[in-house]
Amino acid sequence: MRRAINNGEIVPFYQPVVNGREGTLRGVEVLARWKQPHGGYISPAAFIPLAEKCGLIVPLTQSLMNQVARQMNAIASKLPEGFHIGINFSASHIILPTFVDECLNYRDSFTRRDLNLVLEVTEREPLNVDESLVQRLNILHENGFVIALDDFGTGYSGLSYLHDLHIDYIKIDHSFVGRVNADPASTRILDCVLDLARKLSISIVAEDVETKEQFDYLNQNNITFQQGYYFYKPVTYIDLVKIILSKPKVKIVVE
User: From what superkingdom does this record's organism come (predicted)?
Assistant: First the structure.
């Protein structure tokens, strides 16, 4: 795993985030893939747990940050104003004393200053919210970063995070989106999550949108930002460039 990181075999894939009402591209979520010597890629589900177990998730993320900045700079003039670029950060990375400086250096490595750099904090592992952490994330927020709570409602302390941290977005995944109209109870729970976000003035990104029924429900509930196979699967940098240059205005699914 360490060799793969050092050799640049862990590469970024990009899943587009779209405006569900307009069909326009609004940003991307960065996802890791392990590139194989003879072609093909290994899914993160097969190696991210290994990276975490071996204490390599931080250098893996740092490598992705460097690659993303370099690739986005190459197409900077083609990116829409306010384009979102989201990267997931583990709890073990966020608590490091160097985390703020790493993020500021990451921001400064972009040639465009009007991009929205999103720090996605996953709820799938516990994060010790103390004064130091709050201060750290506040500094990043004050320096232009957008803070998103990923996998909301599926992990440890989502409501606590909303209370203690300055959260700009919550991301709801298949555990919520996939239950749209599945049964009355599931739909009511999702309705409550959406209502909570609105009352707290927190925006929502819907992940794992796969069907027109889900798409219609989200639009009816004014969930503008959406991602999933209904629009695009995660794509290579080259395919992302093609999507951006095509300036899509309608639903396109990249095979």
Answer: Bacteria
